[in-house]
Amino acid sequence: MPQPPSRPRRSNEPNPNAYSPAVLGFVYTPYVIRFSHRFAWQVPNSVLHRNHADNIGANHLTVGPGNGYFLSKLPPSTALRSLTLMDLNATCLKVAGDRLRGRFDVRTIEQDALKPWPVAEGGLDSVDCHMMLHTVRGSSMLDKEGLIAEAAKALRPGGRFIGATILAKGEGVVLNGLATRLMNTYNGQSNTFANANDSSEDLRALLEKHFSEVRYEVHGCTGVWVVTR
Ligand SMILES: C[S@@+](CC[C@H](N)C(=O)[O-])C[C@H]1O[C@@H](n2cnc3c(N)ncnc32)[C@H](O)[C@@H]1O
Domain Methyltransferase type: where (predicted)? Predict the structure, then answer.
């Protein structure tokens, strides 16, 4: 993210400077979604759009909606009706909620997604978590298991958990020069990422631990998954 938070974040707490209305409204889509996804993280947005379009069911929860861009691009044929947005940052809930409320029945939950989710067990058709696990605090991917476990618990049998996250290492992970520079900055001085030790192998192992059917691929330095409970 272009703007550093006011002080280093060691635990999951809101970072309103990085997710201000101005950043979400004017910077996030061109700089993060259009530029960084393609040139740094090397993940085609078409893959992320397809992940959403093919797998989101009628009763869905999104973890970390940002400005709601990908949900706003769901095709008219989407099954989605009831949408729960969960986020640590109130501004993301407000911006994404306002953007999506005309189309879907939206409710919001303001909390750290690593903490227990206040939703009925087995009640959801789908959960998504795109491009956010790399910002969740932890010394490695293994510290982020709570979020994956909560997603599994909230889904009905046969429900799908989909997502993508930026990885630092592992088989097939390719960090180009721009990705290396940005990741060093975001994990260091700006402290907006916490993925310096996130590996593809740990992510895949966690998905396989909590879900029965795992489809997983790496694009550049981004792990992308569709898994079924
Ligand atoms: C980089 S943005 C991704 C936005 C969106 N999913 C996308 O793909 O465009 C990360 C999002 O995750 C949220 N977030 C970060 N850490 C979180 C946490 N521990 N719990 C809940 N939400 C979190 C941020 O507030 C933000 O909305």
Answer: 61-162
| Domain count along the chain | 1
Q: Give the pTM.
A: 0.95
Distance CA 168, CA 67 (A): 25
Quick: pLDDT tens for 121-171: 999 999 999 999 999 999 999 999 999 999 999 999 999 999 999 999 999
Residues 103 and 75: their CA atoms lie apart, in Å, by 11
Alpha-carbon span 89 to 1, nearest angstrom: 15
- Find the 205 Cα to ligand 1 centroid distance in Å: 22
| Ligand 1 near 164 CB (within 6 A) | no
Range of the domain at 161: 21-228
What is the Å distance from ligand 1's center to 215 Cα? 22
Residue 6 lies in a domain: no
